[in-house]
């Protein structure tokens, strides 16, 4: 139905997450109606991002240098490491403005159903960072899903022998949330985690 | 907040129609997690589509040859031309399977508010096609919007002196609607109910 070069472009857009056929067609036509410079600049941005971005040699977050800006910063508290599943979680944490330590990006969670074991995530890189005495606490901030919980538990067990304190972010009712619509497990966790006002 | 090559990629995705910041971030991360080959193939698809696709020398539809497949076909009725606003409208018409003539793609509509006059759309290319006696009818299938109606009326007046019959698709297409999103049955009704302007 579409001429070959257009069909190929549509197919590439369709492979992106959450992009259906109609959206892919719309995006492809938009690329066609862009200027030559704009299209070239888009293609270059893809190639450049792909070739220049890699993992920080310390925290495994994305960076275009050897280490990322957070690991390089002298203002960050190097005694505390927050462990997250992916680079987007680092951005979410940074938005709070409440955390001043370092991060460790796992790039996944342990999920036997999907064939992802401890070897497939950046677990040994985390343990390697704990050999110096500098780190006092590791916060497990993986998602509150079955896989996220299992990964947090696995890593906690791995870290325990080093003597470093391991904590888990609080489970509870989200701010602005309605008790009525919160599931029972969350509410139970919120009750268990109650604190004196 | 984002490292430079990632920020550049996000910005390019954000320029696409209907793509907000959050979606642009999601799409950019998806490109980063693709293989090198996949990313390169995506960039190539953009460049290739942009460089190889141009306008058919006859109907102005998109093609990667000199003329498009419809203009080349010996099975199409060359006595009738359906005038549409854009290449996506040709696809919508073809989906009905009810039209066997040729097309003419205007690549826009007359819209004084946006500074688009008759010179900015492929109007004179249309008139040039009517010099031979082959064409007996021109169907105006521009959108049923104010601009689409104005363009149809303008072109009808331009064509009248040549003696070629000019028709307008029936107002079975909901007013204010876009051809691209109309279902095939409605579009078929609109074709069948066409009347002389």
Account of the 3D structure:
The structure is a homodimer of 197-residue chains. Chain A has 197 residues and is of the alpha/beta class. Chain A folds into 2 domains: 4-52, RecR Domain 1 (Helicase, Ruva Protein, domain 3), CATH 1.10.8.420; 55-168, Dna Topoisomerase Vi A Subunit, Chain: A, domain 2, CATH 3.40.1360. Chain A has helices at residues 4-14, 21-32, 36-52, 69-72, 87-96, 123-128, 146-159, 184-192; strands at residues 54-55, 62-63, 80-84, 102-105, 137-140, 165-168. In chain A, the strands form 2 sheets. A 4-stranded parallel sheet of chain A has the order 4-3-5-6. In chain A, strand 1 (54-55) and strand 2 form a beta hairpin. In chain A, helix 1 (4-14) crosses helix 2 (21-32). The longest helix of chain A has 17 residues, at 36-52. The model of chain A has no long low-confidence stretch (mean pLDDT 92). At the A-B interface, helix 1, helix 2, helix 3, strand 2 and helix 5 of A face helix 1, helix 2, helix 3, strand 2 and helix 5 of B.
Task: Give the secondary structure arrangement, pairings included.
The structure is a homodimer of 197-residue chains.
Chain A: H1 4-14, H2 21-32, H3 36-52, E1 54-55, E2 62-63, H4 69-72, E3 80-84, H5 87-96, E4 102-105, H6 123-128, E5 137-140, H7 146-159, E6 165-168, H8 184-192
Parallel strand pairs in A: 3-4, 3-5, 5-6
Antiparallel strand pairs in A: 1-2
Helix pairs in contact in A: 1-2
How far apart the termini of chain A lie comes to 66 Å
Describe the main β-sheet of chain A briefly. Answer: 4 strands, parallel
Q: Give the largest interface.
A: A-B, 52 and 52 residues
Q: What is the total number of structural domains of chain A?
A: 2
In which range does the helix fraction of chain A lie?
A: 40-55%
Under the CATH scheme, which class of the largest domain in chain A? Alpha Beta
Enumerate the spans of chain A where pLDDT stays under 50 for 5 or more consecutive residues: none
The CATH architecture of the largest domain in chain A can be given as: 3-Layer(aba) Sandwich
- Please state the CA-atom Rg of chain A, rounded to the nearest Å: 21 Å
The CATH topology of the largest domain in chain A: Dna Topoisomerase Vi A Subunit, Chain: A, domain 2
* Oligomer state of the chains in this structure: homodimer
Q: How much strand content do the residues of chain A show?
A: 5-15%
Q: How many strand segments of chain A? A: 6
The strands making up the biggest β-sheet of chain A line up spatially as 4-3-5-6
Sketch the topology of chain A as an H/E string, one letter per element.
HHHEEHEHEHEHEH
User: Please, how many helices of chain A?
Assistant: 8
């Amino acid at each position: 139905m579409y001429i070959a070069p257009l069909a190929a472009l549509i197919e590439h857009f369709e492979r992106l997450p959450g992009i259906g056929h109609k959206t892919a067609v719309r995006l492809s036509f938009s690329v066609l109606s862009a200027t030559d410079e704009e299209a070239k600049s888009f293609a270059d941005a893809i190639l450049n991002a792909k070739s220049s971005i890699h993992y920080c040699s310390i925290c495994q977050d994305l960076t275009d240098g050897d280490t990322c800006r957070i690991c390089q910063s002298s203002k960050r508290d190097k005694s505390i490491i927050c462990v997250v599943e992916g680079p987007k979680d680092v951005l979410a944490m940074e938005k709070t403005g409440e955390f001043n330590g370092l991060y460790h990006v796992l790039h996944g969670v342990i999920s036997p159903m999907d064939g992802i074991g401890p070897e497939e995530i950046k677990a040994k890189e985390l343990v390697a960072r704990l050999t110096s005495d500098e780190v006092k606490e590791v916060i497990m901030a993986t998602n509150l899903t079955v896989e996220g919980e299992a990964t947090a538990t696995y890593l906690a067990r791995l870290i325990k022998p080093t003597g470093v304190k391991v904590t888990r972010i609080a489970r509870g009712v989200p701010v602005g949330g309605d008790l009525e619509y919160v599931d029972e497990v969350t509410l139970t966790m919120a009750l268990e985690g109650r604190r004196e006002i």
